[in-house]
Amino acid sequence: MPTWFCSREWFFHVGRFDEGGKGVPEDLLFFYEHLKKGGGVFRVNHCLLLYRYHPQAVTHSVLEGTIWNHRVRFLEDRVLSSLTSFTIWNAGKQGKKLYRSLSPANQKKVTAFCDVDEKKIIKGFYTYEESEERPKPKIPVCHFRDATPPFVICVKLDLTGGAFETNLDTLNLKEGVDYYHFN
What is the pLDDT of residue 3? Predict the structure, then answer.
Protein backbone atom coordinates (compact mmCIF):
# COMPACT_ATOMS: atom_id res chain seq x y z
CA MET A 1 0.00 0.00 0.00
CA PRO A 2 1.65 3.26 -1.03
CA THR A 3 1.75 5.99 1.58
CA TRP A 4 2.19 9.60 0.69
CA PHE A 5 2.61 12.78 2.65
CA CYS A 6 2.86 16.52 2.08
CA SER A 7 3.26 19.76 4.01
CA ARG A 8 0.25 21.23 5.81
CA GLU A 9 0.53 24.30 3.57
CA TRP A 10 0.25 22.14 0.44
CA PHE A 11 -2.58 20.15 2.01
CA PHE A 12 -4.61 23.35 2.47
CA HIS A 13 -3.65 24.55 -1.04
CA VAL A 14 -4.93 21.33 -2.60
CA GLY A 15 -8.14 21.59 -0.64
CA ARG A 16 -8.28 18.91 2.02
CA PHE A 17 -10.09 15.59 1.70
CA ASP A 18 -13.55 15.14 0.25
CA GLU A 19 -15.42 14.04 3.35
CA GLY A 20 -18.45 12.99 1.31
CA GLY A 21 -18.95 9.99 3.53
CA LYS A 22 -18.89 6.27 3.13
CA GLY A 23 -17.94 5.07 -0.30
CA VAL A 24 -15.93 8.18 -1.33
CA PRO A 25 -12.29 7.42 -2.21
CA GLU A 26 -11.14 10.66 -0.57
CA ASP A 27 -7.44 9.82 -0.70
CA LEU A 28 -7.57 9.08 -4.43
CA LEU A 29 -9.52 12.27 -5.15
CA PHE A 30 -7.07 14.31 -3.06
CA PHE A 31 -4.14 12.72 -4.89
CA TYR A 32 -5.64 13.57 -8.28
CA GLU A 33 -6.24 17.15 -7.17
CA HIS A 34 -2.63 17.26 -5.95
CA LEU A 35 -1.44 16.26 -9.44
CA LYS A 36 -3.81 18.72 -11.16
CA LYS A 37 -2.33 21.55 -9.09
CA GLY A 38 1.22 20.65 -10.11
CA GLY A 39 2.21 18.40 -7.22
CA GLY A 40 4.92 15.83 -7.76
CA VAL A 41 5.57 12.29 -6.62
CA PHE A 42 8.86 10.90 -5.29
CA ARG A 43 9.42 7.28 -4.33
CA VAL A 44 10.93 6.29 -0.98
CA ASN A 45 11.95 2.65 -0.96
CA HIS A 46 11.45 1.81 2.68
CA CYS A 47 8.58 1.45 5.09
CA LEU A 48 7.41 4.75 6.55
CA LEU A 49 4.16 3.67 8.14
CA LEU A 50 2.54 0.40 9.14
CA TYR A 51 -1.22 0.06 8.66
CA ARG A 52 -3.35 -2.19 10.83
CA TYR A 53 -6.13 -4.11 9.11
CA HIS A 54 -9.54 -4.23 10.73
CA PRO A 55 -12.86 -5.28 9.21
CA GLN A 56 -14.62 -2.00 10.07
CA ALA A 57 -12.15 0.12 8.06
CA VAL A 58 -13.91 2.70 5.88
CA THR A 59 -11.75 1.61 2.96
CA HIS A 60 -14.01 -1.44 2.58
CA SER A 61 -16.98 0.84 1.78
CA VAL A 62 -15.33 2.16 -1.39
CA LEU A 63 -16.52 0.09 -4.32
CA GLU A 64 -14.07 -1.13 -6.94
CA GLY A 65 -16.32 0.36 -9.63
CA THR A 66 -16.16 3.79 -7.99
CA ILE A 67 -12.37 3.76 -8.04
CA TRP A 68 -12.35 2.48 -11.63
CA ASN A 69 -14.66 5.28 -12.79
CA HIS A 70 -12.51 7.96 -11.12
CA ARG A 71 -9.37 6.47 -12.67
CA VAL A 72 -10.92 6.43 -16.15
CA ARG A 73 -12.12 10.04 -15.87
CA PHE A 74 -8.66 11.11 -14.71
CA LEU A 75 -7.04 9.29 -17.64
CA GLU A 76 -9.47 10.95 -20.05
CA ASP A 77 -8.91 14.43 -18.59
CA ARG A 78 -5.14 14.27 -18.15
CA VAL A 79 -3.98 12.09 -21.06
CA LEU A 80 -6.59 11.20 -23.67
CA SER A 81 -7.89 14.75 -24.07
CA SER A 82 -4.58 15.69 -25.71
CA LEU A 83 -4.39 12.65 -28.02
CA THR A 84 -6.01 12.32 -31.42
CA SER A 85 -5.65 8.52 -31.42
CA PHE A 86 -4.17 5.72 -29.34
CA THR A 87 -3.84 1.95 -29.05
CA ILE A 88 -4.97 -0.05 -26.04
CA TRP A 89 -2.32 -2.63 -25.12
CA ASN A 90 -4.36 -5.64 -23.99
CA ALA A 91 -7.16 -7.14 -26.03
CA GLY A 92 -8.28 -9.11 -22.99
CA LYS A 93 -10.61 -8.39 -20.10
CA GLN A 94 -8.96 -5.21 -18.76
CA GLY A 95 -8.38 -3.63 -22.17
CA LYS A 96 -11.97 -4.23 -23.24
CA LYS A 97 -13.26 -2.94 -19.90
CA LEU A 98 -11.25 0.25 -20.39
CA TYR A 99 -12.62 0.67 -23.91
CA ARG A 100 -16.22 0.22 -22.75
CA SER A 101 -15.65 2.71 -19.90
CA LEU A 102 -14.38 5.49 -22.15
CA SER A 103 -16.57 8.34 -23.31
CA PRO A 104 -17.87 7.90 -26.89
CA ALA A 105 -15.45 10.60 -28.08
CA ASN A 106 -12.46 8.72 -26.63
CA GLN A 107 -13.72 5.36 -27.88
CA LYS A 108 -13.51 6.80 -31.39
CA LYS A 109 -9.83 7.63 -30.79
CA VAL A 110 -8.95 3.95 -30.24
CA THR A 111 -7.28 2.80 -33.45
CA ALA A 112 -6.56 -0.75 -32.26
CA PHE A 113 -5.97 -3.18 -29.45
CA CYS A 114 -2.61 -4.90 -29.39
CA ASP A 115 -1.65 -8.12 -27.66
CA VAL A 116 0.61 -11.17 -27.82
CA ASP A 117 -2.20 -13.74 -27.65
CA GLU A 118 -2.31 -15.45 -31.04
CA LYS A 119 -6.03 -16.33 -30.72
CA LYS A 120 -6.99 -12.68 -30.28
CA ILE A 121 -4.67 -11.57 -33.08
CA ILE A 122 -5.96 -14.25 -35.49
CA LYS A 123 -9.57 -13.22 -34.79
CA GLY A 124 -8.44 -9.76 -35.87
CA PHE A 125 -10.98 -7.49 -34.15
CA TYR A 126 -13.07 -6.79 -31.07
CA THR A 127 -16.75 -6.04 -31.58
CA TYR A 128 -18.33 -3.76 -29.00
CA GLU A 129 -21.59 -5.69 -28.74
CA GLU A 130 -23.16 -3.44 -26.07
CA SER A 131 -22.87 -0.40 -28.32
CA GLU A 132 -26.02 1.36 -29.48
CA GLU A 133 -24.26 2.26 -32.74
CA ARG A 134 -25.14 0.48 -35.97
CA PRO A 135 -23.07 -1.09 -37.29
CA LYS A 136 -21.45 -2.03 -33.99
CA PRO A 137 -17.89 -0.74 -33.62
CA LYS A 138 -15.20 -3.26 -34.61
CA ILE A 139 -11.74 -2.39 -33.35
CA PRO A 140 -8.76 -4.14 -34.95
CA VAL A 141 -6.52 -6.40 -32.83
CA CYS A 142 -2.88 -6.71 -33.85
CA HIS A 143 0.45 -7.90 -32.47
CA PHE A 144 2.15 -5.27 -30.31
CA ARG A 145 5.02 -4.98 -32.82
CA ASP A 146 2.52 -3.97 -35.52
CA ALA A 147 0.71 -1.41 -33.37
CA THR A 148 1.07 2.35 -33.47
CA PRO A 149 1.83 4.43 -30.38
CA PRO A 150 0.79 6.08 -28.22
CA PHE A 151 -0.32 3.15 -26.08
CA VAL A 152 -2.53 3.00 -23.03
CA ILE A 153 -1.20 -0.10 -21.32
CA CYS A 154 -3.66 -2.27 -19.40
CA VAL A 155 -1.16 -4.97 -18.42
CA LYS A 156 -0.09 -5.36 -14.80
CA LEU A 157 3.64 -5.19 -14.28
CA ASP A 158 5.60 -8.07 -12.76
CA LEU A 159 3.00 -10.71 -13.67
CA THR A 160 4.56 -12.23 -16.78
CA GLY A 161 8.02 -13.14 -15.50
CA GLY A 162 9.40 -10.08 -17.26
CA ALA A 163 8.02 -10.97 -20.71
CA PHE A 164 5.75 -7.92 -20.96
CA GLU A 165 8.49 -5.56 -19.76
CA THR A 166 10.93 -7.06 -22.29
CA ASN A 167 8.39 -6.63 -25.10
CA LEU A 168 7.83 -3.01 -24.11
CA ASP A 169 11.58 -2.34 -23.91
CA THR A 170 12.10 -3.68 -27.46
CA LEU A 171 10.00 -0.80 -28.81
CA ASN A 172 12.28 1.90 -27.33
CA LEU A 173 9.36 4.06 -26.25
CA LYS A 174 9.25 6.87 -23.72
CA GLU A 175 6.78 6.67 -20.84
CA GLY A 176 4.49 9.71 -20.69
CA VAL A 177 4.96 10.34 -24.41
CA ASP A 178 4.63 7.03 -26.27
CA TYR A 179 2.83 5.07 -23.59
CA TYR A 180 0.84 5.46 -20.38
CA HIS A 181 0.22 2.76 -17.78
CA PHE A 182 -3.37 2.16 -16.77
CA ASN A 183 -3.21 -0.99 -14.67
Answer: 65
